[in-house]
Amino acid sequence: MKLSLGPVLFYWDRQQTLDFYANMAEQPLDVIYLGETVCSKRRAMMLDDWLGLARDLSEASSAQLVLSGLTLVEAASELSSLRRLCDNGELLVEANDMGAVQLMSERKLPFVGGPALNLYNGHALAELVASGMTRWVPPVEASGKLIKSARTQLQELDVALPEIEIFAYGHLPLAYSARCFTARAENRPKDDCQFCCQNYPEGIPLLSQEGEALFTINGIQTMSAAVSNLLADYAGLVDSGADLLRLSPRAAGMEEAIGAFDAVRKGALPPLAVDGCNGYWHGQPGMLRAEEAGLC
């Protein structure tokens, strides 16, 4: 089992970003994703900066480096930036929008199919494999049963299986909007947001009327309130055919999280239960833990 570090979903300043990756270069990771996937207004790191960081990381780490594209492409300028990303000439690209799939297919280049592509069955996977997808990151709401079913369908279609990379740790990216929720929370217009999401390195908790944590807002992105953690489900991850487990960056505690997953993949017994949520993996509401859903 390989461990991957997903792209940073929050907006950190340049120095925090560089310091974070310098630390991650020392961790037992097999794949590291770089790039901005949430909002094109976040310009602390531009494409050339990400490529420069990738060159530095390649000297400090043996991990494969992948460049992730924007999830919601809304403007011609964003499409132009996406073309530049797909033409980077150095790194494998993670396509998080069908526009990126089209660009990579036209260039006859392999790519990673990100979780926002919403691929749920073998027939959809077959189309993307034919377009050049070599690794599939299922949607975060996909259960272990759904992933196994999609693999079976793909085998029945006699299509080569791509690598499967499952989102195993971090705040779940659930939805994207043209509106910026963080700017709205500070009574700012989106076009004059003053990059206020830098004030929230792990987003803003959104509470229900009863005061319970319901979501996390992160710019235009809606995320889970709880951190998803599938470490206790390691045996099921293996059974589903997972090749990689994605750990999504957080502002603190990443070394401990990576260490825990690394220990289990090397033979340590997984915990019986963990803090956080894992309902989606069991086909239940995502905000639940398996114990709450009566599954263990």
Commentary on this structure:
The protein has helices spanning 14-24, 47-60, 76-86, 98-106, 122-131, 144-156, 181-185, 234-239, 254-265; strands spanning 2-5, 31-34, 64-68, 92-95, 111-113, 133-136, 163-176, 204-207, 213-218, 221-229, 244-247. It is of the alpha/beta class. Helix 2 (47-60) links the parallel strand 2 and strand 3 (64-68). Helix 3 (76-86) packs across helix 4 (98-106) and helix 5 packs across helix 6 (144-156). It has an 8-stranded parallel β-barrel with strand order 1-2-3-4-5-6-7-11, surrounded by 4 helices. The longest helix has 14 residues, at 47-60. The protein contains 9 helices and 11 strands. Belongs to the peptidase U32 family. UbiV subfamily.
Characteristics:
RNA/ubiquinone_mod_enzymes, 8-stranded parallel β-barrel, alpha/beta, 21% strand, 296 residues, single chain, 9 helices
Reading the helices and strands in chain order gives EHEHEHEHEHEHEHEEEHEH
Ends apart, CA distance between termini: 25 Å
Residue stretches low in confidence (pLDDT < 50, at least 5 long) are none
Question: What fraction of the residues are assigned to beta strands by DSSP?
Answer: 15-25%
The Cα radius of gyration reads: 18 Å
Number of helices: 9
Mean pLDDT score: 94
Strand order of the largest sheet: 1-2-3-4-5-6-7-11
Overall, the morphology is globular
Share of residues in helices: 25-40%
Major β-sheet annotation: 8 strands, parallel, barrel
- Strand element count: 11
Structural class by helix and strand composition: alpha/beta
